[in-house]
Fold these 2 entries.
Entry 1:
Amino acid sequence: MLGPVILAASRSDRMRRLISAAPVTKPVVDRFIPGETVGEIVPIIEELTGKGLEVTMDVVGEDITTPEQAAAARDAYLELIGRLKELGLGPKAEMSVKLSMFGQALPGGHELALANVRPVVEAAAAIGTTVTLDAEDHTTLDSMFAIHEELRKDFPATGCVIQAYLFRTEADARRLAASGSRVRIVKGAYKEPASVAYQNKHEIDKAYVRILKTLMEGEGYPMIGSHDPRIIAIAQDIARRAGRKLDEYEFQMLYGIRSEEHVRLAAEGHRMRVYTAYGTDWYGYFMRRLAEKPANLRFFARSVLTKS
């Protein structure tokens, strides 16, 4: 049960300082976050798209405490979109954004986040791509879904994320499946109380499959966010039963995890999108990757032991 411990550490300033200062940390982080600047990440995008993959780009950073930081996050995405436009990579690269980066938790945060994310959505649409709003902890979701609904009035391709471990998600999926929206389903990577979320992996997996069936049988565009081979096989079966063509849904996996599977699925004709994060404020993102999967933690531990 190390996952909850790691998630708690992801919110600890003391652990942030200790892990960030460890000499071994950077090479391990580079496995999941392959760059800190636009200049460093563009070759990664070119490499992935050259393999027939698509990407969704995440500028990491969630601990926003001022409106100026939220505006800087907006500008970082606009810089990225500008580079993608220059390279003609827009149709292959969408954006993933966390509204906390755009000021959602600040006073007046709902309106501030909407005002900051709208220019990013507009700029993405102008280069032939779109934006997906990432799900964060359960207390932020009503605001996220309201912003999603508002943005879709002008940009109907704007996507959102739902998390299978939350009790509310089956109802959210039914609503979204009927709306024609783009929906990424993930298991969930935040520490949530038992009052709002399943705590048992088996129960989470069952909920994931039920929700995926709802999305596949609906009118929206499902995006399957999972590295689990069993979930991937089940998703393919549900898609066939729902009469979905290969371009009517997609798989999404994280950069640095099961990379050979990315290429295999693309070679079979599936749309395969690699969630690729970059930036300097990597700590929270990195810790959640460790918490999500024991293999990630073992990889980090082996690296520490070999370097010590």
Entry 2:
Amino acid sequence: MQEFWQWAGNFWWLIFPIMGMAGGAAKAWEQGAKRRHERRLETLRLKGELKAAELAARGQVASSKKPREIASDAQVSSNQLLERLFAEHDEITARWLDYELDVAKLIAFPAMSDGRQPLTAAFLRAKKTADALRPATADAKVSEQRVSEYLDAVGNYAVAFEIAEKDARRLRDSSFTEAERKKLDRAQKLLKVAVDESATQAERNVAYKRVREELDGLIVLSDDAVTVLEKQVAREITAGPTPTAGPEHEPIAERAPEPERVRLHRDDERA
């Protein structure tokens, strides 16, 4: 014990940097706790809105008629409720696919396609549950319990998407290193050339190939996203005098060659 105090007496000045580091750690923890608290409040607010919509759909309270709120002026039948839930379900899926199939959006908001992100993973789980509980048609004979479970699943699906989207837009490319962010920026610029109708097909193909190279190991593109992008790259080009054919003289568009498909090694699989 005496040796400790002797050591402390010789190195008393260390107390200042230690206190500085402790203060910084405490501040970081406080900021993290504040962000977690704000997310919990946002989750509760969204769940509260969905719960109000559920009560409205069952005729217990008045609400608007927007499908997203599954509203009704009076109590609705199971079939009517299912139709409104289908519309809500499809709307959320369409908003998700807007990110999933648009490579420009995937580059701008990569967290929306990264299953390793906790909030994105939670959204994908909610989607899987809602898809599994969805009846085949609105006229299908399902129990009231099944309808209630599907309603809750669609509500959770909506909440999970809203939270995941907000988090992805907050994060943007902050989870990447400086070098990786530069690659994403180059890919975004090359992508504009790859889908530019004023560019030649050769220029498009080269830009497309380089986009895939820049994204390799950073963002995994789904097969559907690749298909959509390749169609944009290889869309028909018309230039100069338009050739004619047949008695009606209908224009014939010159079909551009398909872009060379680049098969890249994927380091990470989508969760």
